[in-house]
Amino acid sequence: VPATRVELTVSCRQLLDRDTFSKSDPICVLYTQRPGSHQWREFGRTEVIDNSLNPDFLHKFVLDYCFEERQNLRFDLYDVDSKNPDLSKHDFLGQAFCTLGEIVGSAGSRLEKPLTGILGKKCGTIILLAEELGNCRDVATLQFCANKLDKKDFFGKSDPFMVFYRSNEDGTFTICHKTEVVRNTLNPVWAAFAIPVRALCNGDHDRAIKVEVYDWDRDGSHDFIGEFTTSYRELARGQSHFNVYEVVNPRKKMKKKKYLNSGTVTLLSFTVEAEHTFLDYIRGGTQLNFTVAIDFTASNGNPSQPTSLHYLSPFQLNAYSLALRAVGDIIQDYDSDKMFPALGFGAKVPPDGQVSHKFPLNGDASNPACHGIAGVLEAYQRSLRHVQLYGPTNFAPVVNHVARSAATVLDGSQYFVLLIITDGVISDMAQTKEAIVNAAKLPMSIIIVGVGQAEFDAMVELDGDDIRISSRGKVAERDIVQFVPFRDYMTGGPGAGLSMAGLAREVLAEIPDQLLSYMKARGIKPHPHPSHVP
Question: Where does the C2 domain lie (predicted)?
Fold first, then answer.
């Protein structure tokens, strides 16, 4: 377990202007490299900031900091022109390379670098600030309103929003929250928002928190109304006369003798509670139920041929077996009975040769569970000899099968994980989307491992990382699908060793947060973990 987690804040200054009628709309994409690999993999993206050449991105990148590894980072900037997640559809604004150690080791852990990558052009600079995360797990929920703010708009009242900054050790400020815009009012009531205490003050309750109030303008040139400062300790007193703040515009104060303020902001409510972690739920007895579904469609190739993805060689495991083993070996630690339902789809099954989209690999429809990952592998290899690969490739039946089980245990005592291993050519996209949108309400996650060399565009769409999946106008309430192409983990060279640990890490990376998002949405708290009585 890495000793330290580091939060990176990204800002840029003097970016290139790529838009004709307005300023660029920048986004920053971070790429990382695995230890020992030269391949760049996307780690995450910030939000898009409209009309700005000097963006301070709100989205932070949280990285595990390993002193003993060279952690190469690459930051690419783009001017976003549409909702398309494909970066090649947007204008490139420049890039910067560094290591995490380089940022952490700079004065104040703040690194400024020129952006490069466009010949003959100055692309501006990137500013990277690293802050070690305190292990404070509290989350504060705050709500504010304002009164009699200055009127900034010629035709209507102002459209106010607030921006919160925490102060750094060196006296500079880092953005940590933006409220929504309340339209056309000088007396806004903003929605309550939750924010990790460490984001507000990094565990130092007396550290200054600066709040700026703006009038929103469509073109990005928001008008400054005024500001005030407070601290976590002040806010924690809750609603009281201490938490009514005068909003002051320093320039007006200097110019006008009679100037009092530009309005007031009042804290309406303040609560704080500990953020529960994945391990709190596991310790409290939540079980993970693991179901496997394997693609037996004809597009995998004839299993008796060495070119088939289902070929059973006496010398090595095929891609299906390897993927199953890599993910199963880790997940079985969280499943106390070690019994895993294993299903196949897309084959003609005996005795009558009907096509089935969810048949038990062990041949027992009343109890498709196999004992341990070894039992699943054995059942998989046995059923390959008895069924005929066919089609079409329908995911919805297995998704709905697991969803039916998940729907019977909504109390947080069990969480269901479905692993689908497929060659990726899906036939029932609309039904699968519908099934996933319905499953997003339930305690379940879906992992899709794509084997073979197909284009996996449909799988990437199901993953929903860039655009949340929707069906018939209903958007999934949580992102529950994680897609990983198996070929990214096939390392060539002697013995063609497989980076199975890497595959497992990637595949399981989102499960803890997905479990937490379910528990949080349902207000389920972890059980106090049973203490062992001596």
Answer: 1-115, 122-245
- The predicted pLDDT at position 404 comes to 97
Surface-to-core class of residue 221, CB atoms within 10 Å of its CB (0-12 exposed, 13-18 middle, 19+ buried):
exposed
Following DSSP, what letter does each residue of 47-111 receive, concatenated?
A: ---TT-SS-B--PPEEEEE-TTS--EEEEEEEE--SS---GGGSEEEEEEEEEHHHHHHSGGGEE
Euclidean distance between CA atoms 490 and 428, whole angstroms: 29
Residue 196 CB burial class (10 angstroms; 0-12, 13-18, ≥19):
middle
Predicted confidence at residue 494, as pLDDT, reads 37
List pLDDT tens digits, range 495-526.
Answer: 334 566 677 777 787 888 899 999 989 999 98
Low-confidence ranges of the chain (pLDDT < 50): 1-3, 492-497, 529-534
**C-beta separation of 344 from 359 below 8 A:** yes
Tell me which DSSP letter residue 116 carries: B
Look at strands 388-389 and 40-45 and give their pairing.
unpaired
pLDDT at res. 189 = 98
Residue linked to tokens 């933006």: 178
pLDDT of res. 76: 98
The pLDDT assigned to 501 comes to 63
Of the candidates 221, 438, 451, 150, the one whose C-alpha atom is nearest the C-alpha of residue 327 is: 451
d(CA 57, CA 128): 11
Contact in structure between 372 and 327 (CB atoms under 8 Å) = no
pLDDT digits (tens, 9 = 90+) for 343-352: 999 999 999 9
447 in Cβ contact with 420 (< 8 Å): yes
Task: Return left, alpha or beta for 289; rule: phi > 0 is left, psi -120 to 50 is alpha, else beta.
Answer: beta
pLDDT for the residue 2 = 40
Length reported for the chain: 534
Write out the H or E segment, with its range, that includes residue 400: helix 396-406
Q: Among all chains, which residue has been given the structure tokens 């806010």?
A: 235
Entry pTM: 0.61
143 beta partners:
269
Angle 444-449-451 from CA coordinates, rounded to 5°: 160
What are the structural domains, with CATH classification, of the chain? 4-133 (2.60.40.150), 138-274 (2.60.40.150), 286-522 (3.40.50.410)
* Ordered DSSP codes for 25-53: -EEEEEEEE-TT---EEEEEE----TT-S
**What are the C-alpha distances in Å from 1 to residues 66, 278, 327, 393?**
9, 15, 19, 39
Cα 360 to chain centroid distance, Å, stands at 33
